[in-house]
Design a protein that fits this description.
Blueprint lengths: L1 H10 L3 H6 L14 E3 L3 H17 L2 H10 L7 H4 L3 H8 L5 H26 L4 E3 L8 H12 L1
Parallel strand pairs: 1-2
Helix pairs in contact: 3-7, 4-6, 6-7
Protein name: tRNA Delta(2)-isopentenylpyrophosphate transferase
Pfam families: IPPT (PF01715)
GO molecular function: tRNA dimethylallyltransferase activity
Length: 150
């Protein structure tokens, strides 16, 4: 329900309206070739967890502590950003760092899942890559682009 409310407030359209709208290609001038990179879920989960751990290692807790010290309204977008509420709870003493990191990682994975679901259902791609979009996928990309160019 919270996500549905956020979408309605943020866009003026309900989730049902978004879902009912047909998938469309972006309005780009000229010809375009769209590639949807849709890696396996386990790879996405691992990447999300590693990215958040790296952010914590690079000082994310101190950054969130600076936000908390400013006593900002919790409804502000910066205070609702993925992971901020969890790290803020740690800064305030409500969660241990491992608990906060685990919750922030879960929130990050949920956000990534929403993005992937949206992309799969709303993007009209010329090529869908189920890999990571790296050099291993060139075997699929090069022939598809060659066909597009000709």
């Amino acid at each position: 329900m919270a996500r549905a409310w956020e979408v309605l407030i943020g866009t003026g359209r309900s989730l049902a309206q978004w879902w009912a709208a047909p998938a469309q290609r972006p309005a780009l001038p000229g010809r375009s070739f769209l590639i949807l990179v849709d890696p396996p879920r386990d790879a996405v989960r691992a990447a999300c967890d590693a990215r958040l751990a790296a952010m914590v290692e690079a000082g994310a807790v101190a950054e969130v502590a600076a936000l908390v010290a400013r006593d900002l309204n919790p409804a502000l977008p910066v205070m609702r950003a993925v992971g901020v509420p969890d790290l803020a709870a740690h800064v305030r003493g409500a969660l241990s760092l491992p608990e906060a990191v685990a919750q922030a990682q879960a929130a990050t994975r949920q956000y990534a899942k929403r993005q992937a679901t949206w992309a799969r259902h709303q993007m009209v791609a010329d090529l869908r890559l189920e890999g990571r979009g790296d050099t291993q996928d060139l075997e699929s990309i090069i022939p598809a682009l060659d066909n597009f160019i000709r």
